[in-house]
Amino acid sequence: MDVTPGSTAGHGAASITLDGIGKRYPDGTEAVRKLSLDVAAGELVVLIGPSGCGKSTVLRMINRLIEPTAGRILLGDDDVTRVDPVALRRRIGYVIQNVGLFPHQTVATNVATVPGLLGWSRARTRERVDELLELVGLEPAQFGRRYPHELSGGQRQRVGVARALAADPVVLLMDEPFSAVDPIVRTRLQEEFLRLQAEVRKTIVLVTHDLDEAVRLGDRIAVLSEGGRLEQYDTPAALLGSPASPFVREFVGADRGIRRLAVTPLTREVLDPLPTDGATDLPTVPLGGSAYDALGALLTSATDRALVTEDGQPIGVLTRARVLNLGAGD
Ligand SMILES: Nc1ncnc2c1ncn2[C@@H]1O[C@H](COP(=O)(O)OP(=O)(O)OP(=O)(O)O)[C@@H](O)[C@H]1O
Question: Which keywords describe this protein according to UniProt (predicted)?
């Protein structure tokens, strides 16, 4: 995804600027010391780091569920500490683990929460609820009247996302949104969520423990260590390819080569010329496809070369050694 600041702003998406923010809890715990971070409008940034490093505290300072004790937070050009917190939270969608749906209200009423608070007319609200449920893949006529306990975990999670998007917020904050569902449902929700984000282009800050999720979803990933210290802020490929510190290297783990292949597209630079022996039995992989898929094709066909195609035509050869080099990084 293109993350050039200013060029990809979704409709009504705002940039976020964290400027030296800190949080010292009343008992003296310094959960976050002086963190600075910029998130472009329409960008999806993932916060990741070990348990207790301050991820949730950072997220909750953005919508002022937690008041910062130092620094400034800007939404676009607005300093959030100068905005009424209730009004602020209506401009910011918030999705948490286990969703927090109101159990005694229907799915439709849950999704209509913020439009209701904003005083939208009944007709406008109903239209918006139907639109949102469709957007997250739940048939409004079928699911709108159900109660949360009548849904699967994955469906509840989707209702949570629909509710957070209902009033067209400028920012979406997500705290471990997909962690309460099993890995297969999680992968499917992540894919659906990426499609949804391509459509709505919100500015999103998402907290996770799961590096695979971070790599799959993030335009950029911020790796935090204790005290909300920013260890590295980079694209997934850069993070996996060149960890900036021993902490990050250890955090992204020994299998980062494999993870890196998944986010590295095949380019012309890594190709050798087409073979003169007319080897037509080689597996083919498309230019622009991931190096991970290319490695899969090589392993499946037990060869050490693949033909790379563009518009169905072979344009070069990819060797197994080249693919492994792509995973080796720095
Ligand atoms: N109300 C509080 N009072 C005192 N300390 C707190 C409070 N809330 C959180 N903390 C501490 O602040 C630090 C950061 O907590 P936070 O929940 O932000 O971390 P996290 O990275 O989100 O953790 P996890 O991944 O385990 O959810 C922790 O040391 C935690 O114990």
Answer: ATP-binding, Nucleotide-binding, Transport
